[in-house]
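Recall the central idea of this unit: under ordinary conditions, the amino acid sequence of a chain determines the structure it adopts. In this exercise we apply that idea directly, starting from the sequence alone.
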Amino acid sequence: MGNPGTPATHWQALAVAADNGQLYLNSEAAAACSSACDTYVEKLRLHQRHARELANASGWGDFDMGLELQTILANKAVGGENNMVDVLQSHIDVVEEMKVVFNKFFTATNDVDDANAAGIKVQGPN
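Accordingly, the structure predicted from this sequence is:
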């Protein structure tokens, strides 16, 4: 078994590296990457909805082979081993991990800017 303190995924390891100051990305690039992640997650969720609709496909006839084929295809869409909905969810999970890393860079920059602004207000202009 792995070390409990060790990140489980590549993106979790990058998040730890960002927290430790071992990884840097400027805030504009990080914000653009985060926005691209949002767009991609929306598309993946749309594909998930379409895959769920495929589970209800009909028109394969009343013969045993047609019903069997309908079941096989429905399980590939939802519920079966390696089904499309679950595969898409694994992609969504990775993109969400990516967003966490990107958000650290522009959140941290905003926090520093806020702290600097507060310091200037307290000390006043020189």
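The two ends are 58 Å apart (CA to CA).
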